[in-house]
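Wed. Picked up where I left off yesterday with Purine nucleoside phosphorylase. The coffee machine is broken again, so keeping this brief.
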Amino acid sequence: MLDNIQKTAAYIKNRIGDFVPEIGIILGTGLGGLVKEIEIEKQMMYSNIPDFPISTLEFHSGKLIFGRLAGKNVVAMQGRLHYYEGYSMQQITFPVRVMKMLGIQTLFVSNASGSLNPDFKKGELMVIEDHINLQLDNPLIGNNDSDLGPRFPDMSEPYKKDLIEKGLKIAADNNIACHKGVYVSVSGPNLETRAEYRFLRIIGGDAVGMSTVPEVIVANHMGLPVFAISVLTDEGFPETLKPVSVEEILAVATEAEPKLTLILKELIATL
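Structure written out below (tokens, as returned):
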């Protein structure tokens, strides 16, 4: 895997020249609006990058964007990859390893998720302080390359505490409803049943989604600090559960996106 990572990173470096990204950003479903805030210097379609997996979702652009945001050099993934698309965990997390090889020192992740906590309402935000991994695989299974990270990486602080506190303060200062909670990652692609929502709440989840955790595991494996934030696009409360469509989820994410963008921009500016 290391050879493929180095080959892909070398290809990208040849096309971005002296540009060295300090920060990597993964933009979740309906949350690509942050790209409008980036002073773009270079962009590449995933399909043109060697060994780079291609997003199969029609609402994910599948584009790697390099530029300046809040005074920092960033590389942003406009469109992420999911286990339910049929990719292996190693393929899903391959871009994180490439971004680390390009020079990033911190990873920012966003996603759309369903609320499990009755105090967390649809349209609000949640900074992730911890997670529960219920996906069916792990990106670190298999031979470990010590050049990438340790065989048994510590996960006592998967999300950087100082970034969490800064992010919550930025939200409070701007009167944005933003919580702190535990994210449960499942494989998808179906949404959860009433019994599953009940179970996920019982085990300590505040929100549930189908992404993020694989990338965070790999970031920790490689020593990258992480900040992650969810837009709560629907409510998984068993007693009042209603059918929800992808279109509704996208609409809520799009409406909340400016608040998420503000927090990310101001947080990045503090680094």
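Quick read: Residues 246-269 form the longest helix (24 residues).
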